[in-house]
Amino acid sequence: MAVNAAPYGKTPAGRLAGRWVPWSVIGLWLVLTVIMGPLSGKLSSVTTDKAADTLPAGAESTKVAVLEDSLPGGNDNTFVFVYHRDSGITDADRATVERQYDALAKRYPAKVVTPDGEDDEGPRTRPSTDGKAMMFTLDVSTTYGAPEAIVGPLRDAAKDRPTGLELDVTGPAAVDGDMEAVFDGIDLQVLLTTIVVVTLLLIITYRSPVLWLIPLVAVGAAALTAMATVYLLVKGFGIVVNDQNSALLTILVFGVGTDYALLLIARYREALHHHENVRVAMIHALRGAAPAIVASAATVIAGLLCLLVADLNSTSGLGPIGAAGILCALVAMLTLFPALLVVLGRRIFWPAVPRFSTAVEEKPGLWVRLGAAISRRRWVATLGSLGVLGVLALGLMGNTGALREQDQFVSAPESVTGFTVLRQHFPELGGQPMTIFTRPAHQERVLDVVKGVPGVAVAVPGETSGGWADISVFPKDAPDTVAEYDTIKRVRTAVHAVSGAEAIVGGPSAEHLDTEETTSRDEKLVIPLVLLVVLIVLGLLLRAIVAPLVLMATVVVSFAAAFGGSVFVFDTILGFKGIDYSVPLLAFLFLVALGVDYNIFLASRAREEAVRLGTRKGMLKALSATGGVITSAGLVLAATFGVLVSLPLVMLIEVGFLVAFGVLLDALLVRSVLVPALTLLIGRRMWWPSRLSQPVEELPVGQRSRTDDEELALQR
User: Fold this and answer.
1) Residues 499 and 562 grouped into a single domain
2) What does the DSSP 8-state code read for residue 478?
3) Nearest-angstrom CA–CA distance, 253 and 207
4) In Å, what is the CA distance from 595 to each residue of 288, 292, 630?
5) Who wins on pLDDT, 419 or 430?
6) Measuring CA to CA, how many Å separate 652 from each of 73, 186, 578?
7) 3-class SS at 582?
8) What is the CATH number of the domain that holds 448?
9) CATH number at residue 30
10) Which residue, 187, 178, 327, is CA-closest to 245?
11) Rounded Cα–Cα distance for residues 383 and 379 (Å)
12) In this structure, are 121 and 158 located in the same domain?
């Protein structure tokens, strides 16, 4: 029955629905945007991809990176020039290599490290044993710029070569430069692509020429506020923001914010049929949707903050960054977004304007028919869903090995192909150089020890400064391979045994080794913590124990299926050579925290309806009421994460595809079929130990609803 707005205005909710409230909220957001707008543009100025800022906090390679940054010339950029000719290096080629080395060394005067260990007056280039290649290593001071700024001019400076003499500029700094080139402008690219994708999906969803713009405006304001907030967090607390986390912030805010908008609009549309006053209708919509939205946001925020216990700086930094983004999205979608809808009135839904009516005809649709089918075939729906998920999970038997840095690029740049050429012609220098810092008095002893370690090709003493001496070590094996990692471990064991040397081993491959090992430890700590936190949030929301356990189990099974299916795609279809070390933890976090959202939306509505209708009818009513909006929300969230698939970096493609696939799997199968089927099978016990779980005949007469009495009569 419709509600008259006049007496309603005397209640607290009615006063909140006063005419001045929406305009005040919009005004406050305008002021906030004016303040936060300039700060949001400064976020890019505090993003960092320095090794010391993103590596594990307590790792040995991190200590080396920090020490390099503090010593004169310690953080020079190392480039390797590999010249090669298939028919063999000619005298003219040798002269060209020597001339170009002299020119580059003069242009970029810095320490030069050669595998031969020659002094400054000796030869600085090295021929290959097969006579088909020459190489030299050039260390360029950071005073000349970052790797991405240097690698281009270096390649241009060496263009003047005899016909047929090929050159690849590779080495750790070249790889870093090519990697940075991938991230150059990525924030703007992700932002614009996300806006386009969300806009198209909203237009398709609402089929309205105007309504799609309102969620976009609110989410845009949330994104601006989130970026400004993260900037302030960086300045105030020193958290780490890298390009990857900055891109994920944009995706999270737009994806989650749009989800909240879809859920609220669905409730608001329902309320408009029962309330003539749009402000009163919005109050009722918020009453129905806000608890689920807040619980959803709390789940994601709590899950993200669990990352603070991670040792990997880039992972722990994502915790407060993502949490700030979700919080800004929550506040914007529960304040600014409703205010905009109320001010614009019913006409914003044109052409399908919801009319005020005492009787709203509910037409059986897809979700009603699906619910009826699940109710008739509960076991079939349950076992069929689990069967599909189980088959997908079999993909976990595919290639889940760690992805090497050289395999991160969709299209291999020169720095990556250069490593292949280097290993082909200089097999004794197949790996990336390690850096050892030791006390000067023990340098010779450490050097002798390292030379005797299996897997070490050459060890070269370096400069002494600041109370430390450095040694460059060239392993025999290819970069980021098990064999090279084993060599690094043996070198560490050997140098640590030199009493008083205080030797520490770092370098690019050592950093990757420490990062993988730290990520593995972080997973064992963060994943159980996330599960526990999400379980607690679900328990508080649903006031039950069984339901949260069931919902959590479905999310975990869904994650395994999504991961398995994605591994099959990565390995068999896309031909990726492994899984980036950061993908499993990030994907688990996003899919558990975000995937459980849809179960929260469904289960909270089911519990609400179960109070009136009983568990079976309540779940079917919840499925029919939320089916369309949750499916739309899943499509939007999947599409926003799918934006990452368009980027030329394997790690981002893997995260984007896995999360998008997992969200769709969760929204279309787990939430639509498996959870309703399990609820119908378990029945009232789903809500144990709350009152809803008790058999009808055990309830006091005063606590029975009409539905309870009807069910009891049927039982009798």
Assistant:
1) no
2) P
3) 23
4) 20, 14, 11
5) 419
6) 33, 11, 13
7) coil
8) 3.30.70.920
9) 1.20.1640.10
10) 187
11) 6
12) yes
Residue 534 lies in a domain: no
Strand-pair partners of 56: 312
Under DSSP, the state recorded for 670 is I
* pTM for this entry: 0.79
**Residue 169 belongs to what domain range?**
76-182
Number of other CB atoms surrounding residue 705 within 10 Å: 15
Q: How far apart, in Å, do the first and last CA atoms of the chain sit?
A: 32
DSSP string, 195-257: HHHHHHHHHHHH--TTTTHHHHHHHHHHHHHHHHHHHHHHHHH-----HHHHHHHHHHHHHHH
Q: What is the 3-state secondary structure (H, E, C) of 322-375?
A: HHHHHHHHHHHHHCHHHHHHHHHCHHHHCCCCCCCCCCCCCCCCHHHHHHHHHH
State pLDDT tens for residues 274-302.
Answer: 888 888 888 888 888 888 888 888 888 98
The owner of tokens 């050997």 is 494
Which of 598, 609, 607 is closest to 543 using CA atoms? 607
Whether 166 is in a domain gets the answer yes
Per DSSP, the three-state class of 589 is helix
* 412: amino acid identity, one letter: A
Considering the domain boundaries, does residue 234 fall inside one? yes
CA distance 233 to 32: 17
Does 100 lie in the same domain as 36? no
- Judgement on whether residues 216 and 158 belong to the same structural domain of the protein: no
Strands 434-438 and 468-475: antiparallel
* Domain annotation covers residue 386: no
Amino acid at 699: L
Return the bridge partners of 464, or none.
Answer: 469
Three-state SS annotation for 515-526: HHHHHHHHHHHH
To 5 degrees, how large is the angle CA 552–CA 553–CA 558? 100
**Positive or negative torsion for Cα 439, 440, 442, 443:** positive
H or E segment to which residue 137 belongs: strand 133-140
- 576 and 634 fall within a common domain: yes
The tokens describing 312, both together, are 């990997």
Q: What is the pLDDT of residues 363-420, one digit of tens each?
A: 567 888 888 888 888 899 999 999 999 999 998 888 888 888 778 888 788 888 888 8
The Cα-based distances of 665 to 130, 204, 559, 620 in angstroms read 54, 21, 9, 20
> 502 and 617: one domain?
no
Q: Same domain for 656 and 565?
A: yes
Q: Out of 493, 513, 533, pick the residue that ends a domain.
A: 513
Identify which of 459, 210, 155 has the alpha carbon closest to the alpha carbon of residue 341. Answer: 210
Angle at 290 between CA 285 and CA 293, to 5 degrees: 130
Tokens in use for 249? 């912030």
Quote the Cα angle for 315-319-324, to 5°.
145
- Single-letter code of the amino acid located at 448: D
Determine if the peptide bond prior to 689 is cis (ω within 30°). yes
User: Which domain-ending residue is among 166, 182, 198?
Assistant: 182
Burial (CB < 10 A; 0-12, 13-18, 19+), residue 39, is middle
* Domain harbouring 666, CATH code: 1.20.1640
Q: 376: part of which helix (H) or strand (E)?
A: helix 366-376
Structure tokens at 592: 């558990």
Length of the chain: 716
Q: Are 169 and 202 contained in the same domain?
A: no
Per-residue model confidence as pLDDT tens digits over 307-365: 888 888 888 888 899 999 999 999 999 999 999 999 988 888 887 777 777 555 555 67
Domain tally for the chain?
4
Instruction: Count the neighbouring beta carbons within 10 Å of the beta carbon of residue 528.
Output: 11
Retrieve residue 680's tokens. Answer: 């119908």
